[in-house]
Amino acid sequence: MTTLEESYRHCRDLNRRYGTTYYWSTWLLPAVKRHHVHALYGFCRYADDIVDDLGPASPAEREDALHSFGERFFADLAAGASDDPVLKAVVHTVRAFGLDPEGFRRFLHSMAMDLSVTEYHSYDDLLGYMDGSAAVIGELMLPILEPASPAAIEPARDLGNAFQLTNFLRDIAEDHQRGRIYVPQEDIAKFGAAPAWTGQRLTPEFVDLMRFELDRTRRLYRSADEGISLLPASSARCIGAARTLYSGILDRIEGAGYDVWSQRVRVPTWRKLAVAARIGKSIPYGAPARW
Q1: Which residue blocks in the chain are alpha helix, DSSP H?
Q2: In terms of domains, do 79 and 155 share one?
Q3: 59-79 helix and 31-52 helix, angle to the nearest 10 degrees
Q4: Is 290 exposed, middle or buried (0-12, 13-18, 19+ CB in 10 A)?
Q5: Band (270; pLDDT cuts 50, 70, 90)
Q6: C-alpha–C-alpha distance, residues 170 and 166, integer Å
Q7: Which residues, in sequence order, are CB contacts of 31 under 8 Å at separation 6+?
Q8: Domain match, 82 and 195 both
Q9: Which of 40, 164, 172, 255, by CA, is between 20 and 30 Å from 108?
Q10: For position 235, which CATH number holds?
Q11: pLDDT of 211-222, one tens digit each?
């Protein structure tokens, strides 16, 4: 039987293997909070792997597996305990902070959308998807981060969406191979950038589109800064580092001439460690955080 310590360690290992930006940022959290963030990441990664990494499984089989995972989670949550290597830690975290189970339902709903929805007409349509795939993660994190005011909720949602949009822009080629396009179709049409997807190549129209999408994403990061300033210093270190590193991906996309077709831009590990060290030193415990 999996122990609680082993379950949290497993979630931490998932975070370290697949979400290195978040992982190194969590080291700026007090140890008493760090493993709870790993648990949330473990839940999200588990569901995401069902959707994208079940090998030759059909969409129907993936849908059944995702539904089964959700049912198991909510049953374990109701029972107050789990023997699942991931869910044992997740259930403990949810109960420890009184996290709203509805947030997990919203997340699973958006994961299910990935099995049938391949594109989004408008930005508003995409926001509907990201409510469950990204914004809700910001909401679920807040009780762990202990903001000083409920005013942190909307900025937390904005930060979740900014992280998600950054992923979408970085992973355009990978998502296209999976048959998905997350850039809104009306934006693609507005800039005449459809041939970039047809030929999977850089075009002047695609560059203009990318500039537009990067600007939109940066506005969300700026909005999120207002929420980071409401966090206690111990939490602001972590979120500030993640914000700095993730927004830096946009700079690297620019530096690559917006060519996300032939390469996947990355923030090197040394950069992640350097940013975490700099931010950790710049905000002493107990000091107000301003970004």
Answers
A1: 4-18, 20-26, 31-52, 59-79, 87-97, 101-113, 123-130, 136-145, 153-170, 172-177, 185-191, 194-199, 204-228, 233-255, 269-282
A2: no
A3: 150
A4: exposed
A5: low
A6: 6
A7: none
A8: no
A9: 172
A10: 1.10.600.10
A11: 999 999 999 999
Per residue in 41-52, pLDDT (tens digit) is 999 999 999 999
Rg value, the chain, Cα: 19
Count other Cβ atoms within 10 Å, centred on residue 115: 16
Do 171 and 282 belong together in one domain? yes
Does 260 lie in the same domain as 160?
A: yes
The span from the CA of 121 to the CA of 135, in Å, is 19
Pair (270, 193) in one structural domain: yes
Number of domains comprising the chain: 2
Given the structure tokens 């060519």, which residue do they identify?
259
Judge if 215 and 81 occupy the same domain: no
Q: What is the pLDDT of residues 145-172, one digit of tens each?
A: 998 889 999 999 999 999 999 999 999 9
Q: By residue range, what is the domain housing residue 24?
A: 1-116
Give the residue carrying structure tokens 């648990």: 39
DSSP reduced 3-state for 119: strand
Tokens of 50: 């069902």
Residues 8-56: pLDDT tens digits?
Answer: 999 999 999 988 888 888 988 999 999 999 999 999 999 999 999 888 8
Q: Where does a domain end: 66, 99, 116?
A: 116
CB within 8 Å of 22: residues ≥ 6 apart? 15, 37, 41, 242
In a domain, 197, yes or no: yes
